Structure formats: C-alpha cells, structure tokens
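=== RUN LOG ===
request id: a7f3
mode: sequence -> structure
chains: 1
length: 398
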Amino acid sequence: MKHWILSAFLGLFLFEVFSVLPSRNVNVPATEGMPNFISGLINVRPNASTEAQRIPELARLAKENGHSFVIFADHDSVEGRQLGLEKHYDGVDAFIELDASTPSGDVLVFFSHTQLENSSPKELSKAAYDRFQGNRTTPELFVSVSHPSHNQRPWTQLDRFPDGMEVVNFDSIFWRKLYSNPLDFLGLAFLYPLNPFITSLRGIQPYPKDIASWDNMNSLEPRHFGILSSQFDLKVHLPQLNISWPDYREIFRLGSNIIFLNEPLSTEFNIRKKQLYRLIKEGRLAMVFQAIYPFAGNDFYLKCPQGSFRSGEIFHGDARECEFIVKTPASLPYATKARLFQNGELKKEVLSSESEIHIPVTGGGQYRVEIMVRPHSAFWILLRKWVPYVLYNPIFIS
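=== RESULT ===
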C-alpha cells in the first residue's frame, strides 16, 4: 500500500513539473499591417575573444532560435575584433563591441561603426565615459549601461543619463534571486534539472528599480533605449567532464530583442550594421521572452490620422484623435494582460481574451506597454503568477 501511495505521489509530482513546457516552432501567419522586424541577441558573454572557436557554433545556435544578429561583448578587450571574428555567418550577423569598465560601472560601447573601430580598450573606455558625462565625443558612438542593479557590480552614477540601459540582464536576475530569497533559489536549483523552462518562468522578472530608472529617463528626455541582455556568466565549468552552465542554447532560446525596421536592410555588412545600430539607439525595440511564445503576431502602436507610430518614434501634434492599439497572437495559449504606462505610471491594465485592444490617449508623455501572460502548472502549485512576455520601448507624444 505504501508503494502505491508513493508511486501516485511521484506520478502527480511529475505531472505537475512537466505540465508547463516551452513553445515549439509555432508558425504564426503573416498579417497585413503587422510590423517588419528582426530578432537578435545583445551583450552575449563570456568574452568573444575567449570563445573564438565557438563563434560559428554560437551563430548557428542563434539562427536555430530565429535570430538575425548577435552582439558579442569583449570585456575591456578588443581581441575578438582583432582576430577577425566579426562577420556574417550563414544568415546571422556577428558584431563585436566592448564592455568597458568605467568609474561608475560597466557600459556596453557601440563603437565598431565609428572612426574608433581600431582604438585600444583604454581609448574606448575614455570615449565611452566622456559620452556618458555629456562631453564632446565621437559622432555615432553610443553607450548602454550594463547590469545597472547587479548585486556585485552595480551602476553607481544616477545623476546623468546614458543613451540606453539593460532593463533585463540574466546574470543580474540570477544573483538577485540568490541573495534576496535563498530558500526559493534552492527550490529552483532542484527544479531546474527536471524542467528548465518552468524554472525560468519562476525567475524572470525585470527589477522594478531598473524599470523606474528607465521610465524616469524617458519621461524627462525621449529615446533612451532599453534592451534585454543575454549576459549570463559561467557558473559551472568542468571541461574534463564537458560540463558548462549556463548553456548558450537555453539563453538564446529564452529571450531576445526585436528591432522594428523602417527600411530594407542593406546587403553590405557594415552598412547593415549602421542601420541596425541607428534603430537600437532610437529605441525602435521590444524585449521578448520568446520561449513563452514567438513574437510574430504582436504589435503596439499609436494610430493617428497622420499615420502610425511605433516604439522609439515621436508624435508631434494633437493626439486627441489618436489611440493606442495593442495586438497579441490569436493563438497565444495563455491568459493575457496588457499594461499601459504613461511616464512610468500605470494608466491602464486590460485583461482580455481578444487579440486586439484599443486604448485612448490621455495626454502627452512617454507611453510603453508590457504584455504579461499567466502560464500555470496543472495544480497551480509550481507556477501560478503573471510573467513578462513582451516589453516595448516607449512611444513619445509631444
């Protein structure tokens, strides 16, 4: 009898554990009027220079997960570029930039498309910090604050605004979970080998302080972009046993950045890079956890008589005849909640089974939308909370 009870308990436990699985390659049909976009990964580390032999493999993994570009980051080093690793790999652009240490913390420096492309790490770090301080610097150079609220290496200077910041950083999420709730972290550690996906859903959550900082910047001055960083430093590395964690395949599958295109991309590598970097700097972006569901079928835009405006764009004029339209895939299998923020304040929260929501404009400012979903385990024990699915960069109404 005891064996039957244990077997039943084990069966129910395993049913609960495996009742939530990642989406497969779902083909969402193209819909007229939906945005033209590409998906990519930003701030992939460890250093590109130490992963030289794996760059082609990492590009292939990125392509397998639907990405068109990867931005690798050498930390205080330009060796990856010197080795000639920046190039196009069978459908995926591999760009290599610098993650620079500055007196205020680390910044991701987008420099390879400027006249500083052959500069030393010391010169680049100085140029990046000058850019942050508001001093005259190289045209087209821009920077993004890396892991602003990392438990071990936080950003410390809050009196000036960078061009952009990492709103989501996987390495920061890991350490914050460990320090803030060790008991829950231990439970996730036991759950992870059985179901990495449900473990990720329980852990992914942008840090409210980082969201508030991002909102404050854009409320005072438009076009400070927010990105999802794929940085997740190695925690376990046993080369003799061929064991490393985290695994790039899981990171590339979990989340990425969407760039909304407003023109055809060039067939020439360097010109294409400049196009993408301009769009990143302008904030024509969304962050998506595509392991939950692919991005295709999603949209957020301001519809006005003068036209439509998406993330990173600025509408000048009377917006009383405008409205926000939020779309989600009709085949999305989870309960959905759209949250509209104006200047960092939650203005509207809509729980709807409809794939299209219309929200009136309530004045000027910066508006952004978060799409939350609620996947849950069979018995609502291991997973029963709202989790982020898509985070859009703001639309600005002047």
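=== NOTES ===
The first helix runs from residue 2 to 17.
The chain has two domains: 30-291, 292-398.
=== END ===
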